[in-house]
Amino acid sequence: MNPLHIKGTSQYPTITLDKESKMFFFSGNSLPEDAKAFYEPVLAWIDEYSKAPNPETVIRFRMVYYNTPSSKLLFQILKRFEKLTLLGSNVSVIWEYNEDDIDIKDAGRDLAQSIKVPFKLESYKE
Whole domain around residue 26: which residue ranges? Predict the structure, then answer.
């Protein structure tokens, strides 16, 4: 399965989805004009990955800011990984937030309550 790498900009997040290296990482800003179109290849990649997932999948998020359309797509991404958990896969999420960013911390806490996946909040210092 080919990895998916999206290089981030001020408007788009950096995304690395790589089954072989066990790297599942989202970081930066997410402000695409058409969030659905931007995240479509990500959702397709996860759907393909779900057919034969690794024994353990750890997804890391280090988001700085994202708009409402992006939040809906991030939720869809997490729901797809939740499906893997419900099918018996070992999946967990690490939500990293700048220790001074209450909004991103709260967003992570809200997501943690909305999905059935082990979810860990971790702060970092810029």
Answer: 4-124
